[in-house]
Amino acid sequence: PEDRLLVETDSPYLAPVPHRGHRNEPAWVTHVVEVLAKVRETEPDAIADAACRNFSALMEA
Question: Domains in the chain: how many in total?
Fold first, then answer.
């Protein structure tokens, strides 16, 4: 569900497809967001916004 959605990378291992074979970086989480948006048939901004809200709520808990 959207209110439980968080996004992460597997840094420093298992880089996303455009960077496969290189060290993974947290900045590449945008690739995870893009793929998740395609799977959920929504916009990447919607995924990023939900993940930011949920992370903030998690840190406040």
Answer: 1
Classify residue 44 by burial, with Cβ atoms within 10 Å: 0-12, 13-18, 19+: middle
Angle at 60 between CA 50 and CA 10, to 5 degrees: 55
The model's pTM:
0.83
Dihedral sign, CA of 13, 19, 49, 3?
Answer: negative
Rounded to whole angstroms, the Cα distance separating 57 from 36 reads: 21
Range of the domain at 50: 2-60
Return the DSSP state at 42: S
pLDDT tens-digit readout, 10-42: 888 888 888 888 888 988 899 999 999 999 999
